[in-house]
Each structure stands twice: as structure tokens, then as C-alpha cells.
Amino acid sequence: MNALKKLFTLFIITLLYSCGGSSGGGGDTPPPPPPPPTPKATTLIAPADKTECLDGENVEFSWNASENTDSYTIIIKNLLTAQSVSQTTTSTKVTIKLEVGQPYSWYVVSSSNTSTTTAESGKWKFYLKGEQTLNYAPFPADLTSPKSESSVDAGSIKFEWSGSDVDTGDTLTYDIYIDSANPPTTRVRTGYASSTLDYTISEGGTYYWKIVTKDNHGSNSESGVSMFKVVE
């Protein structure tokens, strides 16, 4: 009889395990849902890059629709005053009033209602026409290396930037300023034709640099100041 009871108990235990195991949970845990799709970067249409914008202070901006995007934020920066304006829209076109006779940059940020990730378009520049002029000042240079607030090793440091001008036939040269003071006042090159420079800094510390871009008509523009650290 005891052997029969033991056999019966073993049968019950086996049956319980086959119906869900000792945890009593019943089945495998379902996999987590996939993350929501992230928005893609849009491509800009108008105003075109490095061009003169049509006369008038009301500028129409347009761009292509991007995937997984519910809204767009356009950011426009006056390259002389460094002041920015922005506007969020669900459309791919918006008209914004700007000051004429000024250079601007603009780009668009794509956003989704279901994701915290955003995507930025490329950045374009244009001049908004003002009074009739035979020559436009060059666009302020974009400082690309060393990156702002980055750290670099002491020694020969590669400085890189990009310059551009609406007047495509103009010749551009650069004055390069590098200093431990902000803003930098030490001019290390004058009338420099290239957009890259190897310059030696031996002492560690915080440094600042900027570029003044000049064209062959005597017009010029000044980049913003960028900071970097030199590590010995």
C-alpha cells in the first residue's frame, strides 16, 4: 500500500510539472514590444544653400517630409548677430519674417510623438537680399577642428574650417587668431589661403580661436569664438 501511495504521489508531482512547472507561472514570458520607430532627418529644399534669397523680408522655407515624423522645428540663425529664431510645425513649409541684408543659416529638427529621439537635417546658409549691392561679404567661417570644448594633445594641432561666399567668383583668404584669452587677439596667420593649418601649442591649458574671412573686394566676416583644451 505504501508503495502504491508513493507511486500515486510521484504521478501527481509529474502532472503538476507538466502543467506549468514548480513556478506555477504557466508558459514563457512574452518578449518585450519593439521600440517605437525613430524619426529620420529631412532634406532641405529652399532657400538653397549658399545663395541669395529673393527680395522681401518674408522668407518661405521648405523641406521634404521625413519618415516617422510628427512635427518639425526650424531653427534660423543670423550669422552676424548670432540671434536665432525657431518655429515648430506639422507642415513641411513655413514663412518667417527676417531682417533683410543679412546672412543666415537654417536647419530642421524632425520629432516623433512616440520617441524622445530627434533627427537633424543638414545646415544651409543664404543671404537675404536688401539694398542693391555689387558684392556680398563672405559667410562667417565654420570652425570644424578642434571641435568646441574638446581636448587635444600638446604639440602640432590641426586647425580646420570652411569658408563660403555667395559671390562664387570671389577669392577668400583668412586671418587666424589663437590665444589663451577670450576673445583671442593673437593673429597667427594673415591673408592665409588654405582652410587648414598645423600650429604648435606646447603648453597645456584652455585656448580660444576664431577666423576672419576676407574676399578680394575688401569685405570680411568674423566667425564665432571656439574653445578647446590642450593636454600635456
Give an account of the 3D structure.
Strands 2, 4, 5, 7, 8 and 9 form a six-stranded mixed β-sheet that branches. Strands 11, 13, 14, 16, 17 and 18 form a six-stranded mixed β-sheet that branches. About 3% of the residues have low confidence. A hairpin with a 2-residue loop joins β7 and β8. The termini are far apart. The radius of gyration is 30 Å and the shape is flat. It folds into two domains: 85 residues, Immunoglobulin-like (Sandwich); 93 residues, Immunoglobulins (Immunoglobulin-like). The chain is built from one helix and 18 strands. With 232 residues, the protein is mostly beta strands. 22% of the residues are buried.
Could you give a quick summary of the protein structure above?
Helix content is 7%, strand content 48%. It contains one helix and 18 strands.
Key terms for this structure?
232 residues; mainly beta; Immunoglobulin-like; 2 domains; six-stranded mixed β-sheet; 1 helix; 48% strand; flat
Number of strands: 18
Tally of individual domains: 2
- CATH architecture descriptor name of the largest domain: Sandwich
**Shape estimate:** flat
Strand percentage: over 45%
Radius of gyration, whole Å: 30 Å
CATH topology of the largest domain: Immunoglobulin-like
Mean pLDDT: 88
Question: How many individual helices?
Answer: 1
User: Would you identify the regions where 5 or more consecutive residues have pLDDT less than 50?
Assistant: 19-24
Largest sheet: 6 strands, mixed
Q: State the helical fraction.
A: under 10%
